[in-house]
Amino acid sequence: MDTDSLKILGHLGRIGYSEDGKPRLKYRAIDPADRYVHCSCGKPDCWTEQIVPLREHMVALFRAIVVCDFEGQFGIRGQAEETWPGVIYALQMAASVEDVFADPSHVDDSEAGLWCSAAWEHDEEDREAASKYAAALIIFNFVWNAYEAATEISAGTLFSVDKVPVRARQLFKAEPGLTSDVWAFDISYRVARHICSKLPALKESVDSIEKKYCLSGASAAAELGRVFRNYIAHGADKMPIGDSRAACSRFYSVTRMLLLLIQLLILRRIQDPAQPVPLSVNQDRGSQRAGLLLRNLHRHEALWLEQGLMPAVED
Ligand SMILES: [Zn+2]
């Protein structure tokens, strides 16, 4: 067997077997996204038990934009692709990532992993870490694109001389009431800040957000997002070898915060928050007030849907 053929075995390393002998994938690169955020405290009222996994959050946000647009909440009753184009496309792409396969040993010409089982096992761990890292980076980048697009559309002509991430910060600073009643906004920001402050290259910038610049609420979150995105875009983040979980959680904690900021950017542009919108444009699932939907869509539906729910139309 030639070297290229042997390297295909790297893909097979992901296949394991269940107790009844059926083949199964040992992991998918997006597993950490589907587990974010998980807390091990075990308390039923823990806030992490109430929040949906990240990809569900993206789907709920995508659909909320579509239904609000369907009801003419953004002025013209049109197509969400026309009113929030970059947001819709990027959210769909972020939510669409099903799996990624990355193999860091591709650059290695020692071929150690092909002849030594310990080296092979080590390469396997690196492949898992790199695959999960690549998925997290891709998802983060798409959500960042959605956030920048949402900022430009929502801000209109406001703060137009600033770069987009600074515009967002300025906008949120000028409208501090936006986060009120947005469930778990503050804790999501604090988690992201805590995780980012553990990165030595970011500690000073993260500490300055509140201590030096006295930012709070959504403007502090916008600044944290800007700082983290620059850190990633400038190549400062190290590829995680053997420790993918911490690397993924920093991407996903900021991704969660960005999704909430996008909700705020949409929320400030809806015309009538008290007006009911259908929960789906395709299925009859009842209606909910537009403002309440945008403040709660990241929670499990059973926890908030009853609140002022408009029942589905009976046939
Ligand atoms: Zn907990």
Automatic annotation (TrEMBL):
<protein>
    <recommendedName>
        <fullName>Apea-like HEPN domain-containing protein</fullName>
    </recommendedName>
</protein>
